[in-house]
Amino acid sequence: MSSRQSLSSWKKLTQMALEKKSQHMNDLFAQDSKRFDKFSIKLPKLLLDYSKNLIDSETMNTLFELAHETDVTGWRAKMFDGEKINKTEDRAVLHTALRRTSETPLIVDGENVTESVKSQLEKMESFVNNVREGHWKGYSGKRITDIVNIGVGGSNLGPQMVTEALKHYSDNSVNVHYVSNVDGAQIVETLRPLEPEKVLFIVSSKTFTTTETMTNARTAIKWLTAASFDESAVAKHFVAVTANSTNAMAFGIKKENIFDMWDWVGGRFSLWSAIGLAIALDLGFDKFKELLAGADEMDQHFINAPFEQNMPVIMALLSVWNTTFLGAKSQAILPYDQTLHMLAAYLQQAEMESNGKSVTWDGVEVDYATVPSIWGELGINGQHAFYQYLHQSNNVVPADFIGSVESVTPVKGHHETLMANFFAQTQALMTGVNEQQVREDLKAKGRTPEYIDKVAPHKVHKGNRPTNTILLKRIDPATLGSLIAAYEHKIFVQGIVLQICSFDQWGVELGKGLAASIQEELEGKTIADNHDCSTENLIHYYKQTKIN
Ligand code: F6P
Question: pTM for this one?
């Protein structure tokens, strides 16, 4: 038995889960008219209602006990203080330092992180203003109109998700584009309408070794120099964001065009650094600072609020409850704001790359379920696609519903329709409708007894499907910053409770290594005899088909 399973709170929760599985939330609501007051948190611009979960006060208290027994408080302090809690990579985890307002020095390996962050933010600000105001010129002397961010994973998803979410706040000084896929189709289509003399590329890669990004960056250089007939144009059209300036310079990017990343920032938590340059170029530096301030506000809430009032802590504990104790296998992210259409993709990396692991930080196989698979879509589109599954399949999928009180668009007659659906869905998922109600309803509609017998079982919704509702006042840079930071801290707390190192990602290495050697085979540089017969035949078929 693992050390987690022997905790007294863990044992109690295991027992409680058995009891709770036979209860229905309808009864819990009927017994307690104060559920919403008890199980919701209101922050100035953000509300979390978690009352539609299979919980009661005893469950929550035991979950808080679990957070105490696993020393979430101690680990939280270690993270914010810059201790090397990323044990397998021997690194600090300090994305919070990127948005910290305090001027107090924070020292990691002899470096004052506070100073380094400040100096990069200043460098970003002056660069952003230069480009947006048209002082930064391309090789032909024209101002920059288009920014192309080349990066993948954390060097793409965070900035792109935020750019999409905050489009409304862009003054269109520049147009921002993102290229992540090594499939040439993406870069070709992105560059097709652009004029090389007016394009600025940001090569975003913490390691500056990622094949997809390097390949796209090489293609971008060729595209630019084919138009400029001059290698020196690269200096005016390429900047890099990286923790590996040596590689970036070897690639041809000028030292002064390199923005620093640090090994104490994980890629999936890096949008607050210069990895967010495209966001700042799109919105202006003041708005970027508002995004950071919103995240810092959530950091302060996470540090200071007692667990009982702590949004990220509660979100994490509910995920552990639903997954590890109640057996859910996946979790849906269902934003209703169009602007958040990339949120699920972003959180897939954030949560699954962080906690999709099955050994503890001490390298021992875990004997409990860790995190669910994360998936999702815009909720309103999902309603007409996969909500059938959410309502009636025999898998229970806990879901986060995210919506806003105010719309960012002035168009009338849309938001109430959107939000009516938003509220209706969580109610329906919770209450369901039983067979007796279905039969009565059909009878009242004048249906024949034969028809009622045939159709009634299909119309039953068991309900009892857990949801969290996150209601934002309105999507703006600060609120979005708070929302993202809440999820970041949720992921951190989950990792601590489940005893998982959330900040490494060894599971991506095996495939990467194999791809590198198979690429040599595809290019005819090597012949390998170490594949299984499926892979070998697939490669053979690919090569043969290509030749013929
Ligand atoms: O392969 C996974 C990964 O390392 C992610 O963790 C990271 O966000 C992404 O690739 C991109 O890495 P880089 O910024 O070093 O190019």
Answer: 0.97
Cα 500 to Cα 55, 266, 493: the distances in Å are 25, 16, 10
pLDDT mean across residues, the chain: 97
Residues with CB under 6 A from ligand 1: 152-155, 205-207, 210, 213, 267-268, 353, 505, 508
Pocket test for ligand 1, best of 182, 206, 265 (most atoms within 8 A of CB): 206
| β-pair partners for 199 | 146
pLDDT digits (tens, 9 = 90+) for 141-161: 999 999 999 999 999 999 999
What are the angstrom distances between the C-alpha of 76 and each of 1, 294, 304, 311, 312? 26, 19, 11, 14, 12
Distance between Cα 259 and ligand 1 center (Å): 17
Just list the catalytic residues: 353, 384, 512
Minimum CA distance residue for ligand 1 atom 13: 205
**What is the per-residue burial (b if ≥16 Cβ within 10 Å, else e) of 81-94?**
ebeebbeeeebbbb
Please tell me whether residue 41 adopts helix, strand or coil conformation. strand
Around Cβ 316, how many Cβ atoms within 10 Å?
A: 27
**23 alpha carbon – ligand 1 mean position (Å):** 43
Backbone dihedral region for residue 355 (phi beyond 0: left; psi -120 to 50: alpha; all else: beta): alpha
Nearest atom in ligand 1 to 261's CA: 14
